[in-house]
């Protein structure tokens, strides 16, 4: 099957410094991929190479099967927003789209039809005639997204589309992107939030210091890693009566417990990785101390913690 993006041995050097090292990245047709990595890991550099904004030191990029270094017209199927774009603040969204549409060589009629479509897609239609300078950052980001979508691209590439937005702005942008995902469109977005990837994307390419550390189906990857890290879970126990320090101490020395955190007098959170038998020893211990348990909850490995582990180095190579 034809791939939307096929990047092979992609490398970018700045003098002696290797910003992106021998990266492989494949996005299937209709797939929504997250390029995940911490600050300075090479996300923007990778996206700039893919969209032809900078030349790779070595390696190739094919968009829908066409090598972009030889046929730049392959990029005409790509809509992109890379890093904070300059904006025509005194324009309204309608005017900005008209300007962009003319650059793309669309007719006035096409511009009118497409503008309405994309502004509705990004939930900015009702703001079409208001000056952009009055918009919140989230609204500006969505307006820029509308520009990228104007020529009806088959592939969207967005560099940190939710970066710098407040929680509400993030939720709105994610909901717009999740809607787009339902279309026959391929997407590559960069982010430093694993949560964002797990919420929106089908697949992930994870990088650190310009190197690939993992890639594949998002859920599969999280499961596989959680398994490798011995299914670390958090158990929270709530009791009717206060938990004495001596009980906390006993719990902390149980098999499988590697951290405990009292949450006030009546609750303790236990970071645990062990067998069910090990777990039952903790319950027995609580009961033997005469404490009445009101609730016991188990949570899988917290996604942010997983990400911290994956990006901290060393053991994370799970390809
Ligand atoms: N033009 C340049 N000249 C020299 N070094 C550069 C240049 N552009 C990027 N770098 C370096 O390459 C590395 C990767 O940068 P890049 O901007 O791709 O990271 P990023 O993952 O997008 O980070 P962020 O999350 O902060 O946006 C960084 O160490 C950066 O300093
Ligand atoms: Mg960046």
The CATH architecture name of the largest domain reads 3-Layer(aba) Sandwich
Average of the residue pLDDT scores: 89
CATH class category of the largest domain:
Alpha Beta
Class from helix and strand fractions:
alpha/beta
Strand order of the largest sheet: 6-7-8-3-9-10
Give the proportion of residues in helices. Answer: 25-40%
Strands, total number: 14
Task: Characterize the structure shown.
The protein is an alpha/beta fold. 34% of the residues lie in helices and 29% in strands. It contains ten helices and 14 strands. The protein has a six-stranded mixed sheet, sandwiched between helices. Helix 2 crosses helix 3 (108-121) and helix 3 packs across helix 4 (137-149). The radius of gyration is 24 Å and the shape is elongated. The protein starts with a strand and ends in an 8-residue tail after the last helix.
Secondary structure layout:
Elements lengths: L2 E12 L2 E12 L3 E5 L6 H8 L7 E6 L2 E2 L10 E4 L11 H11 L4 H14 L15 H13 L5 E5 L7 H15 L4 E6 L2 H7 L2 E6 L2 E7 H11 L4 E7 L5 H8 L4 E6 L4 E6 L3 H13 L4 E7 L3 H9 L8
Parallel strand pairs: 3-8, 3-9, 6-7, 7-8
Antiparallel strand pairs: 1-2, 1-4, 4-5, 9-10, 11-13, 11-14, 12-13
The protein binds adenosine-5'-triphosphate (ATP) and magnesium ion.
Summed up:
This protein has helices at 43-50, 93-103, 108-121, 137-149, 167-181, 194-200, 218-228, 245-252, 276-288, 303-311; strands at residues 3-14, 17-28, 32-36, 58-63, 66-67, 78-81, 155-159, 186-191, 203-208, 211-217, 233-239, 257-262, 267-272, 293-299.
